[in-house]
Amino acid sequence: MKEIVLKKFEEIFGDTDGVSVYFAPGRVNMIGEHTDYNGGHVFPCALTIGTYAAARKREDDKLRLYSMNFDKLGVIESSIIDLKPEKEAEWTNYPKGVMWAFEKRGFKMPCGMDIVLNGNIPNGSGLSSSASLEVLTGFMLRDLFGFDVTNIDLALIGQYSENNFNGMNCGIMDQFASAMGKKDNAIFLNTADLSYEYAPLVLEGAKIVVTNSNVKHKLTDSSYNTRRNECETALEELKTVVDIKELGDLSEEEFEAHKSAIKDEVRIKRAKHAVYENQRTIKAVAALKKNDVKLFGELMNLSHISLRDDYQVSCEEVDVLVEEAWKIPGVIGSRITGAGFGGCTVSIVKDEAVEEFKEKLGAVYKERVGKQADFYVVEIGNGPSKL
């Protein structure tokens, strides 16, 4: 990939003198979905697929960006002066948003850049191509301009830019997983205070398989922000009867005791998911520490049911993938992953069943939905790097 982006950089911008190449990973979340903006726990890991950039500084204020994933759009030009979101800026609003967020922290870029990007995360798959791009941009700015920020800062800057520049009210999980990834480990992150620990995710005799439904989600236009608002309203209602800061502060028993304070059936379901999913995530990591992969898989399955029925962020195609996966011998657990409304599932599959899983699930998905599913046997990788 490094050679590919360098070759394209030379083709687009004339030569590769003074060019540096960077990488930031995508992520898959094993369990703990829609808990990250509810003060709960998440359990993502960085992948070895992600976004690559070849970049160099310019002598002027110009920004020239080119993506091999959106090659029909050609080079999109703007300037480091007066960074603001613009419809015609297309995908470049993501890196521009990060530059804007750096400026908000007092880090001003002294000059523009030429940048060529290439990602091998399927677009709209729910494996965090946007967070990968945000962390990549921040890492690149830090290296090129010597900005004094940590990797956790890179995650926070990426989230801030997505919330405030791109209007997508996401939690911290995706950017944190990309910025803080560690090979062969998932990150057990408490989103209420950003305390975290690495938990080895070396599955003896099993693989992590990501299945892409090829139903693309477009989050800013989706019901994601609505779900967040419903949870915030439910939290305010619960605060009238119980002393909490976040939905993640409640146990299942406490939630059941106080849920009548929530004055709407839909909001009760949303809050129930946030509370129960947080507890499931805590139990799942404890199970993994005891090497109880079977229990971990059962909790993944329960997570999907809750996301389907209480949080209602699944869709027919993804439900087919999960429910058919559950029928295949050797599947330890399977669930939707990411924000939902399409995207991918994540499954833990015994080594000897991986080929059968891909064949059987691929065939039944094509038959029932009329679409092709794509399969990735994923490896867990490190955070961002200069190549």
Pick out its properties.
Ribosomal Protein S5, domain 2; 21% strand; six-stranded mixed beta sheet; four-stranded antiparallel beta sheet; 40% helix; alpha+beta; 11 helices; 13 strands; 387 residues
Explain this structure:
The chain is of the alpha+beta class. The chain has a domain at 2-201: Ribosomal Protein S5, domain 2. It is built from 11 helices and 13 strands. The protein has helices at 2-13, 93-104, 129-145, 151-164, 173-180, 224-239, 252-258, 265-289, 293-309, 316-326, 354-369, and strands at residues 20-29, 41-42, 44-57, 62-67, 76-79, 113-119, 185-190, 195-200, 206-212, 331-337, 344-350, 374-377, 385-386. The strands form 3 sheets. Strands 5-4-6-3-1-13 form a 6-stranded mixed β-sheet, with helices on both faces. A 4-stranded antiparallel β-sheet has the order 10-11-9-12. Strand 10 and strand 11 form a beta hairpin. Helix 2 (93-104) crosses helix 4 (151-164). It is globular, with a radius of gyration of 21 Å. The mean pLDDT is 93.
- Rg, Cα atoms, Å: 21 Å
Q: Helical segment tally? A: 11
The percentage helix is: 40-55%
CATH class of the domain at 2-201: Alpha Beta
Mean pLDDT value: 93
Summarize this entry quickly:
This protein is of the alpha+beta class and 387 residues long. Helix content is 40%, strand content 21%. It has a domain at 2-201: Ribosomal Protein S5, domain 2.
Topology of this protein?
Elements: H1 2-13, E1 20-29, E2 41-42, E3 44-57, E4 62-67, E5 76-79, H2 93-104, E6 113-119, H3 129-145, H4 151-164, H5 173-180, E7 185-190, E8 195-200, E9 206-212, H6 224-239, H7 252-258, H8 265-289, H9 293-309, H10 316-326, E10 331-337, E11 344-350, H11 354-369, E12 374-377, E13 385-386
Parallel strand pairs: 4-6
Antiparallel strand pairs: 1-3, 1-13, 2-7, 3-6, 4-5, 7-8, 9-11, 9-12, 10-11
Helix pairs in contact: 2-3, 2-4, 3-4, 3-5, 4-5, 6-8, 8-9, 10-11
